[in-house]
Automatic annotation (TrEMBL):
Residue ranges occupied by any GSKIP domain in the UniProt entry: 34-134
Organism: Prunella fulvescens (Brown accentor)
Organism domain of life: Eukaryota
GO cellular component, one term: cytoplasm
One of the protein's GO biological processes: regulation of canonical Wnt signaling pathway
Source lineage: Eukaryota, Metazoa, Chordata, Craniata, Vertebrata
Protein name per UniProt: GSKIP protein
Protein family membership: Belongs to the GSKIP family.
Length: 140
């Protein structure tokens, strides 16, 4: 079974890649391991939320990982991370709700910005502090 990172409807019926051995050798090198990607996402924004960790209950694969996040407002979400981006898949840890049709966000920043005013404030303050530090460095 071949995994694809795009909508199969966008591909022509026959791409010719199946017989191309050069492509088969190259294929595995470009695929991101979503668990590693998810860990990086968590490390990036953990300071601005109450709790955030990669789910150990829901299955991670090359093409999907799940991240649990609790905002500073104490709201819990389960996020799905795929090549398409991040989206909320449930309003609790380690859950998925197939009926939930939340939009994909390109970045974790955009997603958390839409969910948590406290995240926005903490992240904005951290950014300002960093800019101030850079400004001081350049003046000395």
């Amino acid at each position: 079974r071949m995994e694809t990172d795009c909508n199969p409807m966008e591909l022509p019926n026959h791409t010719g890649f199946e017989e191309d051995s050069d492509y088969r050798d190259f294929e595995g090198t470009d695929v991101k391991d979503m668990r590693l990607e998810a860990e990086a996402v968590v490390n990036d924004v953990l300071f601005a939320v109450s709790n955030m960790f990669v789910s150990k209950t829901l299955p991670c694969a090359e093409d999907v990982a799940y991240i649990n996040v609790e905002t500073r407002e104490r709201n819990r979400y389960c996020l799905e991370l795929t090549e398409a981006g991040l989206r909320v898949v449930a309003y609790d840890f380690d859950q998925t709700d197939d009926g939930l049709q939340a939009p994909y966000h390109e970045t974790v920043y955009s997603l958390l910005d839409s969910l948590s005013p406290a995240y926005r404030e903490v992240f904005g303050n951290a950014l300002l502090q960093r800019l101030e530090a850079l400004k001081k460095e350049s003046q000395s």
